[in-house]
Amino acid sequence: MQLAPGQIVEEWFQDVTPTRTITVAGLKAAFRKHWPPPKRPKYTRAQQKERIMAELLEENDIGLWTAGNYGHVVWATKVSRLAMGMGDIEGHLIEYVIKGIPNLLKDHLKCDYNSWDEFVEDVQSVPSVKIKRGRKDLDKERARDVDIARLKAQSTPSMASLQHQFLQMSASAQRPNTY
Q: Is 39 helix (H, G, I), strand (E, B) or coil?
């Protein structure tokens, strides 16, 4: 809660009995007594795993500058905060996060971490030049795959075309030749 004019907190603040020496610590203690912080829910390990794996890093966000940082760094920070907020201080859930990272980023990570801070630092340390180069290579591979699929589609006759050719061959085989 914020101490802002017109809010319920302002009313509480006005009702606080002033003493000769009011301190910030005393005010903070009175505030927490009146409004205790909400208790965090307890999650099972399976629920933690499910929640952490649901936080997907989209390939398009890798190397994209958003919110004052690269998208993959913002994502890594968000995931680490979520995990630590659920009580995973030791980083046991990192292995599940790594499974969902697109190869464009994963290829540049060491993928073996002892803490969430170490994980976030490794994600931050990937040079943007490597990501841009990896994205170019990936785009080339995808363009090549599209071209190959198009060539296969052109060279493979359709079923209808094959049936039509078969009917023509069988019809010409049944006609008597007259010379």
A: coil
